[in-house]
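Exercise 3.2. Students should predict the tertiary structure of the chain below and write it as structure tokens, then compare their answer with the key that follows.

Predict this chain's 3D structure.
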Amino acid sequence: MAENERIPETGEGGFKEAVCIDAMRIYDTCSAKDCLEDLRVILPASQTEAVNNATGVRLRDAKVLTVYLDLQPVPFDKGFYSVDMTFFFEVNLELFGPLPNGIIPLCGICIFSKKVILYGSEGSVQMFSSDKSADLPEGKGLRNLPKATVQVAEPIALSARLADQPFAGCETGCRIPECICRHFGEELDASPQRRCILVTLGVFMIVQIVRNVQMLIPAYDFCVPDKECITNTENPCDLFRRIEFPTDQFFPPDAGGCGCTG
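Answer key:
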């Protein structure tokens, strides 16, 4: 509780002075819990035949490769901004059925777009800095726009299925960045397919709009390290002997000892 918080007194080890710092202040934030149903998996062209011959598919896991963000002011609503986010998920799957090589592992991407509107205040000044390029035209600085950030937890891999009906290609304006294609080592085929894989992912995220501001805060002391850097020159076996035996990895707890309630 705020009323129980204690502010250190002035003097040795306590409040010394008020200092002005340049910091990123959060002006607005929101959280989202999205169940992304039937996202099409875009695969390398070399995997098309395997998908056409498979009878089933299993989704093993998923992760976020990257998120592209675009921030634009909302017309006629001063201080508000639309945050357009494009998520690129990497998904690992297994195809099975009457395939010549048995189970075939696959890796592809899913694309998901989301827009939120948040408050970011207004700033009409231009920003100049000594660590930025001086090649800008005279009198032109950086626009004082806020910054959008998104934090995403590891996606939850929920399900996958094969879709036999014709499925459209990538949406209009959708482009797979070259860096993602390089990650897979070959071109990804986003064109319409006779058969495709659809997956469902669970995603948790927090979106924020932050702005550079000057704030007055209490200062107590400098952050002086309180321990010495030590170079480890010990014998590796001596270091290993101090590690406790990982009993839990060999004898997993039963239902009564895992702390679970059912």
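Discussion points: Confidence is low (pLDDT under 50) at residues 1-6. The chain has four helices and eleven strands.
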